[in-house]
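Quick question: what would this complex look like in 3D?
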Amino acid sequence: MAHTLQAPTGLRDFYPADLLRRRYIEKLWRDTAIRHGFEEIDGPTFEHAELYKIKSGEGILNEMFGVFSGKDESQRAALAQGEAPYALRPEFTPTLARLYAAKAATLPKPCKWFWQQNCYRAEKPQRGRLREFMQWNCDVIGTENEPEAQARADAEVIGVSIALLALAGLQPERTSPGVTARICDRSIMQMWFASRGVPEVLMPLAFELRDRALKEPTERLHEVATRAGMGWDAQMSVLRARAIVVNAGAIKSHGPAVADVMDVSGFNLLDESLLSFGIDEWCRFDTTIARGLAYYTGMVFEVIAEGERAIAGGGRYDNLIELFGGPPTPAVGFGMGDVVLSLLLADKGLMPEGKDLLEALSAPAASFRPDAFVISNGTPEADAAVRPLVAKLRRGTESAAWLAKEGRKPWEAARYGSVGEDDPAARPVHARHTYKTTKNVGKLLKEASDQHARAAVIIESGEHATVRNLETREEQKDVPLNRVPGVIAGLVAG
Amino acid sequence: MAHTLQAPTGLRDFYPADLLRRRYIEKLWRDTAIRHGFEEIDGPTFEHAELYKIKSGEGILNEMFGVFSGKDESQRAALAQGEAPYALRPEFTPTLARLYAAKAATLPKPCKWFWQQNCYRAEKPQRGRLREFMQWNCDVIGTENEPEAQARADAEVIGVSIALLALAGLQPERTSPGVTARICDRSIMQMWFASRGVPEVLMPLAFELRDRALKEPTERLHEVATRAGMGWDAQMSVLRARAIVVNAGAIKSHGPAVADVMDVSGFNLLDESLLSFGIDEWCRFDTTIARGLAYYTGMVFEVIAEGERAIAGGGRYDNLIELFGGPPTPAVGFGMGDVVLSLLLADKGLMPEGKDLLEALSAPAASFRPDAFVISNGTPEADAAVRPLVAKLRRGTESAAWLAKEGRKPWEAARYGSVGEDDPAARPVHARHTYKTTKNVGKLLKEASDQHARAAVIIESGEHATVRNLETREEQKDVPLNRVPGVIAGLVAG
């Protein structure tokens, strides 16, 4: 009886104060995703167990919870072997791939989807790891095939994870013992491994070993590699190669000096996108990052706090949708759990309590309607200004940075109104831009209306824009770009 | 493969448009619960299977999904018998009882808890019934033992379910083919059954059969009763007694004329509370309502639309907390599922779509801080005015009724500001009152501050109140009670 009256090991009870803290994390997640133009989806809590055999990899398969209907006696023989017809979802990506593949032909391109619900893993509970935990996923699926479009999608996804950190009050690592997104690329890594004699068939093992090398003694990993038939030079490239860490924004100037280790010039396109999104100070290229999951094909990243704790991780998985029966589809995304993030925020005094928590939860949520849809007038200068402006609108980073500098907590933003170093700065809003190639302003204004945007921002040059209220048709012309966030904030406040 | 790539039978995929509709239901639920002073809790998605054997009854035990860790080989023999160590929650009440019992000594009295998450039942899927569905629970646990206090808690819980219906735009049945709360009481029913010869030991079966009599042919139920040894007179009282349906508010005038059937004068106290909460037009006493679950001990009710579809059900369960290891504790609550409610709202044109849906979801959520804490100055007239005023503040029914009369949809409220027949009427707010017996206004003002209320409303007579802004200490004196909602609305809007 005493045992029955406790939650199963590794699962949590949430009394009201606990639940409010969880809801705070969920609100940060949802508001950030919505402001970045992601739409929420969901699937079943449990799936056919075979769904996870398609691509989740041994690590996850060994930690699944089986599910069966007590009524269904036909399953008994399989159950006796430990085989269940269903499994609690250990991760969401297989469900996402199933949903996308089933309707690929009719879905918008790209699909920007987010998801935040529970996952379940039968691993040994420890600090930062539970058997039931929440996860936030953001994915961009079905971008154009051009390397530039994919680099922008990679940067957009990394940017969402960073916007969350900023909204929670965390700081980039360059300014304090803060957080960094550490970025690598499996296709670049693979070229390097191949040049050192890792055969194609051993590539998945090579990535797995490089990931494990961050956490396990190298001798054991050499043994695994030797047993698998990997040569010594190849092993050295996988397990012992000198780590290169380059600040984002510095790839071009870094030059070819280290091309004998891994060709970091391959990060050029992504570097440019990180710069244009204004998130370079949060990012580093780091050749030790490989990620454990089998399905990544290109960019991979981890968000790491204080040099050790992983808050989030993700990457590009261009082959996965096809494996689930869909067309070949480029895709990139990440997952962030609630457990490590909650511990980190509490440690840093960034989890509100009492009245602060009630106020933080009552603060206005992100609008489901886009507050602003940003359009270029078609000139190259205006084209180049779209993404930086959208990123600025979505993050409202001036406000977060100002609060931190003043020693204020992030949830005090509401009390101070729109604050910042630039005048006027503004709180984060829901901002979008087109992913289409058309330069026809009329068509783009129609897209803004179809998405029910409140305002269109038409960039007329690298420095000025017209802001049109799509409800009233009123226009403000010649608004300097750095004043657009303030104008949109005023329009949202009504 | 094709089979693997579909959601398991009876479980749902939610693409963005589907998820928005689900979030609309969730928003209606959460906003209503918070405005009524309920605090959210949560527990594990799966519990020790034995937890559900304590009191859930055969109906639910037969429809459970078993859960086990694929790693744990010690379970294989039990699994071969269809026995799993864990079960997906088929309902939340056992978890709630476990949580309350574990901390009964330190929890506030009463605890007003709500919960909205998924439940799982391995039943045959059909229209309105799925294997995974959302449920909203609101419970008041640990009220005083006096019959008056319990009748008020019963009415408060019924009132929350009705406030949800009103917020969604549904109408009471007297004005259209709408919805009604149908109320009975197992203790009154039990006295009637006992007087007709149903022995104590057969009471649980009597309630079960009376519940099933609403859906199944009576002949079969007579057979069950006969096999169990129930006499003919007793069977007639359970299965064939004439139904009495009395409008709420009419119990007193209904008189003892039908005391030969079931003594409806026992509903007197509850009837008074329903009247004082202003929800009598939504309620009927109906002697056919028994509810199926084993654990109810007093008031039971079902919310029924168009005379047939059950949207919600609940009742009093005064013995349950003790069964889970806690002290004897009066408790009352209900559950409402998302599936039937969604179908009903869609059928009635009350599920917003497109831009309306995005706006409805973006409308301000209920404040986690109480907007108003209502206090009596200690006179009997003021005492009597507290609950009616709190109920009015929480429901904002004038606004909903006005919109319906004008042929407007409920989500248009934001567009019309505060509207209503009374001037000024107001939108629903988060309102509370004390559950303590003290009449000391100073102590009650301290309770308001401790709960972080924005304003205190001190009722000075049956007709006037002082509204004190607890942030600025500003006071408005001699506010007529019917203008208090408008004053609070102004204060909330800032």
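Answer marked as accepted. Chain B has a mean pLDDT of 90.
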